[in-house]
Amino acid sequence: MPGRSKYSKKKSENLKRKSESQKRKKARSSAKKKGGSKKRLLKEEKHYEYSELESPDEKKKIIDKILEIYPDERLDLKFSSPFELLVSAIFAAQAKDEVVNSATEKLFQKYKSPEDFANLKPEDLKDYVSKINFWYKKSQTVINVSKEIIEKYQGKVPDSVDELVKIKGIGRKTANMVVGGAYGKPAIIVDTHLMRVSQRLGLVDEGLSPEEIEFKLKEIVPEEVQTKFSFALIRHGKKVCHAKNPDCQICELKKLCRWYKASFKYT
């Protein structure tokens, strides 16, 4: 069996050389990445925990600062009634506000009330909303919601989150959006932007559900500014604190931001 032994030894040596070559390539690749990180503050592949700030004073400073930076923000969705905002919010799930606005501009010229939508079929709305993601399913939800508002609320959109979430197809984000955006009542609107920014700033812990974030923020944000605060944080998420490559260098909140401080230590 000497021939087989010689072959096995040669094969083993080849595998070893290949493994060492792969390690060297990996090391060079890693070195390039580290060198590139000097040019940018944050690296996308790094993970930093979003842990909640312990000091109430620090949280208050953040809340006051965000309201100072964005004092008069509004929703990007266009509407002229609570029902129109409700419809727009349903269509806006996983869709861009500008696409929804473009569709509803024509849609609301023909259909304005729950009574207008209640007897429709999704196909009746296709010409208006077909460019919106999942338009068929969302159209069916709008129609069903319209029927329920007529049957249970005499055609008037409820002005409380507790009542709105009783309607099938309406979640807490949409309910808070209508209550805060259309009725001007206190509301914490937890969309993806508010969720991300509130965690990065350290106002809430990472890993909380949208509902947990809503109630946590209600504890620390004064009731009279909760809706304004929501609009401000959403705007900051869209404008500066992006999911990928947040623009920390121009951020006016960076000196207060726990995520920025933790990230800065690694660069």
Describe the structure.
The structure is a single chain. With 267 residues, the chain is mainly alpha-helical. The protein has two domains: 56-73 and 188-264, Helix-hairpin-Helix base-excision DNA repair enzymes (C-terminal) (Endonuclease Iii, domain 2, Orthogonal Bundle), CATH 1.10.1670.10; 82-181, Hypothetical protein, domain 2 (Endonuclease III, domain 1), CATH 1.10.340.30. It is built from 13 helices and no strands. Helix 2 packs across helix 12, helix 3 packs across helix 4 and helix 10 (192-201) crosses helix 12 (226-239). The N and C termini lie far apart (57 Å). The relative contact order is 0.13. The model is unreliable at 31-48 (pLDDT under 50).
